[in-house]
Structures are given as C-alpha cells and as structure tokens.
Specification:
Layout (H helix, E strand, L loop, with lengths): L6 E5 L2 E8 L4 E6 L18 E4 L5 E7 L2 E4 L11 E3 L6
Antiparallel strand pairs: 1-2, 2-3, 4-5, 5-6, 6-7
The structure holds zinc ion.
C-alpha cells in the first residue's frame, strides 16, 4: 500500500490535512476548505501552494504533487528549490 503521507484530522473543529515536512522538522497543516486534493493519502497531490512560517520563524513554500514535495526557491531552508519524496506520516 505504500507510505501514509497525508493524514486527515479535525483540529480545533476544522478539517485539516497534515504532513511531515523534513525541511522544518515539523508537521504542517492545510485547511481542506481552501485547497483541493486528489483524496489519495499515499500519493497525494494538492492543487494549491502551501505557505508556512515554521516554528523556527522560517518561510517554507511548497507544492505537493504525486507524493513528492517541491520546495520553491523562496523557502528559507536547505531544501529550497528541491523536490523530495514525502516522508511517511506517523500519528
Ligand atoms: Zn516546512
């Protein structure tokens, strides 16, 4: 079945998708209301870019496509400009 990469959860009453961001060493979440995704937890694609300011106050800007995360150049961490496979999400 592969690795679980996107996890659906209710956080403070809102539906979220959670994934592990290797660059920030933390989970990131996106509101399911604001994006569309392909409904696949193992090979996710999300049709919007994801902009996060991490707990370290670092900008993390990415796309998720076919189970991979593509970090845009304006990200402020070592993975900027890189595409890597999403890690498994442990919950
Ligand atoms: Zn991140």
């Amino acid at each position: 079945m592969g690795k679980l990469k996107i996890y659906e959860a209710i956080v403070r009453g809102e539906k979220k998708l959670l994934f592990w961001c290797k660059a920030c060493s933390s989970n990131h979440s996106v509101d399911t209301d604001k994006i569309e995704w392909n409904g696949d937890n193992y090979t996710p694609t999300i049709n919007a870019d994801i902009k996060i300011i991490s707990h370290k106050n670092i900008k993390c800007h990415s796309f998720i496509k076919n189970g991979h995360i593509i970090y845009l150049d304006e990200s402020e961490h070592e993975y900027r400009g890189k595409k890597i496979e999403l890690d498994e999400f442990y919950h």
